[in-house]
Amino acid sequence: MFSLSQLANTYQQFHDTSGIKGAPIELYAPVNYIMSLGGKRARPVLCLAANDMFNGDLQQALPLAYAIELFHNFTLVHDDIMDQAPLRRGQHTVHKEYGTARAILSGDVMMIHVYEYFKHLPDAAYRQVISVFNKAAIEVCEGQQMDMNFEDRQTVSLNEYLQMISYKTAVLLGASLQIGAIAAGASLTDQQLLYKVGVDTGVAFQIQDDILDSFGDEASFGKSIGGDIRQNKKTCLLIRALELATGDDKAQLESYITNNDIDPEEKVAAVKQLYLKLKVVDAAEAMRLEYHKGALDALHSLSLSADKIEPLENYINSLLQRQV
Amino acid sequence: MFSLSQLANTYQQFHDTSGIKGAPIELYAPVNYIMSLGGKRARPVLCLAANDMFNGDLQQALPLAYAIELFHNFTLVHDDIMDQAPLRRGQHTVHKEYGTARAILSGDVMMIHVYEYFKHLPDAAYRQVISVFNKAAIEVCEGQQMDMNFEDRQTVSLNEYLQMISYKTAVLLGASLQIGAIAAGASLTDQQLLYKVGVDTGVAFQIQDDILDSFGDEASFGKSIGGDIRQNKKTCLLIRALELATGDDKAQLESYITNNDIDPEEKVAAVKQLYLKLKVVDAAEAMRLEYHKGALDALHSLSLSADKIEPLENYINSLLQRQV
């Protein structure tokens, strides 16, 4: 078995030497630009870790890991156009750098190229990987649409929120693990357990992200604190607060959401106070722990010895223990 | 064997009852909107005709024909955003009707759904179809980028133009025929001949479209005449004219291209006169006939009797004999 840092290093080497070569350059330069912007590479590492747990062939798994990262980056390119985001990882987004038309088209060609990286698989695995990938990819689009819908809605239920983050973010982590496991010949039961490990980890991560966006440490979180509150984003904190608040608290919360004249810093501080008073941070933290536990329980149900599970367990714990 | 009108009718029935059902509705309404706007359905008909020539199972070929039409419509949705086109087939384009964000995302989910319609194929055909489809789909994106590049360039060679229209338009016609043939178990030689039939037909069709845009009959062509000339579009006529013109003709042609103050109707009339004087219409017509002949020669090289070939031959001739 490889350690996770070995897998991460091997992946990064493969990534850095796997730029898509093609013409015209105007189409492929944006592809290689977004792929070189960096990031945690969590999805490829999960794919390789799952593959390695079941004694898969690393060389066969690397193109699959790359395909998933290519898909993830395609979604970033198109999402950034939809969100009109100017920056991604401190650099220009693709549409800012190359214009919207090229960003759309480069994203499209990335999406098609994804399937090219599955070709080396034997027949049964080829079919299963495309099936698992396609389901997740469709759900990612559906999750993005749900997220856009939420912006226009007055209220969103916690269940709707959980489905949205599951589709938009978590299912691709599940698919990353399952695809790695398929390539290694794992049983369907083990594949499905790993899928659940990924989905629960993804949901827990997103809940944590909601908490950190309001209560994190700016330096370690890597973006400015309070952005979700300033934009009235329907996070699990706001959804729960709107459900729980009564009387003056409710009136105050609603006035902060609807009144655009309030000083942003005053708004962030006041809404955070309300969140603490209503104990929605505690509730979110409990929910985060529940999903974290769900992931670990599924992991420990795999037909594998503890030493095989340990690296992935450590990785999940490191993802989910960013300091609040 | 079925007649082409039987295949077209059967396809349209399948098409009309195959809308993608999914949630959220905001994501799938634009998909079903563009798919219901109509069109010739040339690609699905070609796919079914090729399948039927080799005694394929119509029920197995219908989802493949639908997948290709789905892909084609996905490219229309995204191309219309890139071209900022307000109308498509007399109706709002998807981004005009639903906004750019939903048009991008709906296009993306169409693209992923394409692969779902290949799933029923047996292993070998499944792989071959995805391989042929992916190559064409990637080339369609590359062709669209070439087309966008040409707008910013001073000169384009005839060979560059032919590669662009081949990629942007023709390869998908070739792939439609080849995919139908794969599903019917045709030999690789026959598959490749049919691919050439489609590509040559597509190139001939596009050259014809360039001629009709300047010299067609407005009523039968279906759009206003002279649009390419007004927009300085680098058609095979303009490219050839810029190569052939000398002296005053060259100066006049270049002034029409660079001078935005000229009355559009005067410009269209004068450039058409120059095209006739330089005999570029005759040259384009000769090129169109050459590709038309290439398609028919490849068709007659198939390992099939004349009666099997006849319906597709008639269809190609009908596509390529729109009146100038």
Task: Write up this protein.
The structure is a homodimer of 324-residue chains. The longest helix of chain A has 29 residues, at 123-151. In chain A, helix 4 packs parallel to helix 7 and helix 8 packs across helix 9 (188-215). With 324 residues, chain A is mainly α. The model of chain A has no long low-confidence stretch (mean pLDDT 96). Chain A has 16 helices and two strands. The first copy, chain A, has a two-stranded antiparallel ribbon. The interface between A and B is large, with 37 and 37 residues.
Quaternary: homodimer
Quote the beta fraction of chain A: under 5%
| Most extensive chain interface and residues per partner | A-B, 37 and 37 residues
Shape of chain A: globular
Q: If you compute it from the alpha carbons, what radius of gyration of chain A comes out, rounded to the nearest whole angstrom?
A: 21 Å
Q: Poorly predicted ranges of chain A (pLDDT <50, ≥5 residues)?
A: none
Number of strands of chain A: 2
What series of H and E elements makes up the topology of chain A?
Answer: HHHHEEHHHHHHHHHHHH
Strand order across the largest sheet of chain A = 1-2
Number of helices of chain A: 16
Q: Biggest sheet of chain A, open or closed, and with what strands and sense?
A: 2 strands, antiparallel
Q: Structural class of the secondary elements of chain A?
A: mainly alpha
Termini separation of chain A comes to 33 Å
| Helix amount of chain A | over 70%
Average pLDDT of chain A, rounded to a whole number, is 96
